[in-house]
Amino acid sequence: MLEMLLQGISAVISDPISIVLIFLCTGIGIIFGAIPGLTATIAIAMMLPMTFSMPTTMGIASLVALYIGGISGGLVSAILLNMPGTPSSIATCFDGRPLALKGEGGKALGVGVVFSFIGTVLGIAAMIFIAPPLASITIKFGAWEYFTVTMFSLTLIASLAGKNIVKGIITAVIGMMFASVGLAPIDGVERFTFGSVELTSGFAMLSVLVGLYAISEVMKTAGMMQSGENFVATKFHMKGFGFSLQEFFSQIKNAIRSAIIGIGIGILPGIGGGTSNIVSYSIAKNQSRHPERFGTGIIDGVVASETANNATIGGAMIPLLTLGIPGDTATAMLLGGFMIHGIQPGPLLFEAHGDIVYGVFTAMILSSFFMLIWSFGAMRLFIRILKVPKNYLFPIIVVLCSVGAYALDNRVFDAASIVLFGVIGYSLEKLKYPLPPFILGFVLGGTFEQNLRRGLQIGNGNIFDLFNYPIAVVFLVATVLSLFFSLRQLKKRSV
Questions:
Q1: How far apart are CA 17 and CA 492, in angstroms?
Q2: How many domains are there within the chain?
Q3: In this structure, are residues 426 and 217 in contact, taking their beta carbons and an 8 Å threshold?
Q4: What is the tens place of the pLDDT at every residue in 293-303?
Q5: Nearest one of 378, 311, 284 to 94, comparing CA atoms
Q6: What is the C-alpha to C-alpha distance for residues 422 and 212, in angstroms, rounded to an integer?
Q7: pTM
């Protein structure tokens, strides 16, 4: 092991071209992540053909650098424009944007970048040291286990709903309804397609997120501009990292908890950072002594979201490397990168290509430090986005969002559907219905239904069959406890 570790480190460190390439790819990833509609997945997809002629370690190292940069970059537009650059930065909007509106955009960005770095490092550490034992647990996950995990996650709607739990539930149900459009899991029956071929594939996640947050924000801001309302605070203060040591140490507990959540969710295939940042934010809110301040502009929410989504990177790499199962769409692209170079991730990867694996680990560590350098180096440039006239900025954003939505699957329908969800998001906000439950319902709705139906098939239609699975029972108990504590907190708030 030690020999392969040294070989992997040497393959990256001793090659100046590899270091420069990792540095550049990290910066490119941040740019892709910062632009709403473009994601780390798209960045990796565009870079993938270029790695074919590279040495194996260099090629895969470039892809993981794009991955880390892309996930980290999403916080820029989330904080400054209330438009998450990636699905992994949705929850960053909740407190990051209010901080920017208070004139504390520098603090929000500084906190986001530093804790993104911490989350990335902790995720990589988990990937290096605890990948085998964790992988051995997740391989035991079947339909009932995933069903109860999803059900537990849905109980977090209570914390995302704000003061009106009924409106939160309604919004989540609407999100789940949109998730059910297309072909049904298992039997492939068409649902809510109305004879449209485009709807058979359902709505793309990226289109939903971009529409709900980016396009609806453009609509809302356009209305504010028309009414002459001053909606952006352009003043900011940036000293050092943007926040004090006291603020940093006060968030250590929050960061560690969020990193564990991010790693854990990352390990579960198919869930990813789009869920981990929302779950982490919700738990941070539930565990806080001042939950009512969440959503008003506090660093706790930014820390929870950004630590979790970056920790998910390391978590998602664990099933990829040890089982050959991608944890999210970005690692699915990375799987393609491995296979292009004739390498099949799986249980034998560490024995057959240990030097390459440890080379990838080294590249990820380097990329996390380069992310920190890139982010703080361009911080003041990011802040200046606040001063760009919105009548110039927003048309560009709409175009980029449309291009990003189209590029994901090359469907014009995806680009057009961002308008639909923009209208939905704008309407829900006008009616004071919270958007986060919609996202949670849409993200988890498909997984919930699919695994419920698979579980019922396994149990011959008997839902009580899940009690035969200890891990599922554990998550079922966690669901009940989560509901109990959520309802108790809501009752306290209403008193």
A1: 59
A2: 1
A3: no
A4: 888 888 999 99
A5: 284
A6: 5
A7: 0.69
